[in-house]
Specification:
- The chain is an alpha+beta fold.
- It has a single domain, classed as DNA Primase, Chain A.
- The chain contains 4 helices and 5 strands.
- A 5-stranded antiparallel sheet has the order 1-2-3-4-5.
- Helix 1 packs across helix 4 and helix 3 crosses helix 4.
- It is globular.
- The mean pLDDT is about 95.
């Protein structure tokens, strides 16, 4: 089981833009619009999921869903444990830069 500190760090300290980059071809379509990273919402499939850089949380302005790193991974097919294990590895990579 993963500690609350790891889960918090995956959610808050691992930028969504880094996760999307790591996902490569599995990533949702994304682009920088008006200084904000926006990507295709995994729920409604509109390019309206916008990342708030202050809290590292994406909010879809079409369907009103919020998306964090773990949500994004689970929406492309990983289960919770797989998602957390991959994101924990990417967090170590991101922190070692």
């Amino acid at each position: 089981m993963h500690s609350n500190n790891i889960l918090r760090s995956i959610r808050n300290d691992l930028p969504l833009h880094f996760v999307i980059k790591q996902l490569d071809k599995m990533a949702p379509y994304s682009k920088l619009i008006e200084g904000f990273l926006r990507f295709e919402c995994p729920h409604c499939h509109q390019l309206r999921a916008t990342v708030n850089p202050k809290n590292n949380l994406a909010h879809c302005f079409c369907c009103q869903n919020n998306i964090n790193n773990i949500d994004l991974m689970m929406n492309i097919g990983y289960d919770f444990k797989q998602a957390v294990n991959i994101l924990e590895k990417w967090l170590r990579q991101y922190n070692s830069k």
